[in-house]
Amino acid sequence: MDKPSDDDNFEFNWIQMRKEVGLTDLTVFNEETGTEKFVRKVKENPLVPAGALLTTLCLSLGLLSMRKGQTQMSQLMMRGRVAAQGFTIVALVTGLCLKAASD
Fold it and tell me: Where is the HIG1 domain positioned along the sequence (predicted)?
């Protein structure tokens, strides 16, 4: 008979650990879908997607203004885009720091 591999031992260790902890229901270990993960992340830090949307809006309006020849509006929107990107980065770092502090 073949000797069990390390992979088999790893799985047996997980089974043993689940029994010791009292987790026999394997549905506890189901992974979340992409949509569920997105919703969870938005709820954890709603300012990041808001900043990303604002960045996209400024970029789109700036490009549209540039195409129409409205140079002042285009410059304003491109500066707004940079500000929105800065806001998004600050929101991301702040959210990460708050998450680390709460854990």
Answer: 19-103
